[in-house]
Amino acid sequence: MNAAGPRAVRAKRVEPIRAARLSWLFFRLGVMNEMQYRVNFFIQLLQSLLALGTGLAVLALVFSHTKTLKGWTPNELLAVMGVHLLMGGLIRTTIQPNMTRLIEDVRQGTLDYALTKPEDSQLMVSVRDIRIWQGVDIVVGAAVLGVAIARIQAGVGVWDALGFAVALLLGGVMIYCFWMILTIGAFWVIRMDQIVELFEGVYQAGRWPVTVYPLWLRTALTFLVPIAFAVTVPAEGVTSRLNGGTLLAAFGLAVALFAVTRWFWQFGLRRYSGASA
Amino acid sequence: MSAELRTAAGPSAEAPVPEEGRFRSMASMYLTLFKTSIVVGFQYRVANLLYMIGMIAEPVIYLVVWSTIARSQGGSVGGFTPGEFAAYYIVWTLVRQFNIVFTPYGWEWRIREGQLSGQLLKPVHPIHYDIADIAGWKFVVIVLWLPIAAVLTLIFHPTLNPTVLQVAVFAVAIWGAYLIRTMNLWLLGMVTFWTTRVAALFELYFVMELLLSGRLVPLSLMPHWVQVLACFLPFKWTFGFPIEALVADLPAGELLGGLAMQALWIAIGAGLVWIMWRRAVRRYTAVNN
Predict the structure, then answer these.
(1) What is the ipTM of this complex?
(2) A&B contacts, CB < 8 Å
(3) A140 and A49 in contact (C-beta within 8 Å)?
């Protein structure tokens, strides 16, 4: 069935409006699909609350032994936790389901179905799936962040809020690129099913500001796995630590990573030989 | 989904085997399952290594955070220096591997897909397959763990000088931990026979385990009431105890007492599994295949 092969599907210029409409279509489809399983909402809610309770218990434990952690106060660490939960929710609703599906498709050869569609292939594989109930974490994270901000006496200015929003967006893009690059590895290494656990494990590092970690680990968490940009930098935004230089660096890195991801996807795709081959 | 088969009360087709022959065949069954599991485990080296690297993130995070606190508190917190935390969390990585057993989430699949039907026809209790299969995999884990432990040791400089007795007790205790947790998670997983809405229950269990086992932090850092509570629960015998057997300076009495407590919890777990399994199997219906 893939006589023409994936090679026939070359990348064209992606029109932003068309891309947005396609993403929106898949989003609506995903929501309709997920609305069939409403009980999952309550299960997810309970899991989110358990995770929140555990996180709070850990913070309480840490601050029962010390007053500040490398210059971060309890309320500021609460803000970090909020951003961590929020970003985790974003990843699990949008990025992760698509990536696990892509891995499975490469293994089974069912990627053919996505490649033969007359749309940009990278866009297709990145917006096909959505898990709305995991979005509970986004709400819980935002609530924790709100409480933390209210308790930080200094208050959060407009520029801080704007910096936070931009940093969060850039962090999301970087996490997407990171996931995508790892997933493209599936074209070479067929068995990648452990990768979700690998990411979840490493992502836990974001629960603490990366400044806590020793230099080598901080470097890895900034450039190897962009958790610093995904969690710590936005959290710096709401705790008035963020400066323009960091934000500019985040922007530069996000653009560079995206370009690399784009190239790597085309490169990896050439390895793919389809189902019936 | 048409013909449903209600299996009669368990493996009734048991042939009368003489006691010693039965023991020998059991031993050879375990040995065969060990071998298969080891061969399969080494087949997917890259996947397994990635998996283990994902797992070391957790203890490294704890280690860094608590070492930072220890330093800021003048060198130690809760009786642990950074070097002792390093020892605790490096040994943690191996103990964590021994805590991996058949997941309770797997029961839904076992029941829905009719996987149990085949197992029920065999003359031995299905738990033996789980124990042997996953125990075999532990040998693979130990081999893959050695380089990870070496790297962590070079980075974090653990303070670790155990006696021969401590090493011996540790070597037994990790298997004790494995058996306790196998029993506990079998019990938890078997709830699936009665209801399929089990995720919430499992998560609750895992959170309790995280806080009360010594996985999150050494229990001595916990508030006093948590430590007291932990004494009456099985969790700390699967995690905190094996680690402390090697890392802390426990007296010989406490070391051997710990092994006895492990034996007690294994016995309790096995007894409960035996009772619950008999009831569970009566409820089991699966697609006839």
Answers:
(1) 0.80
(2) 88
(3) yes
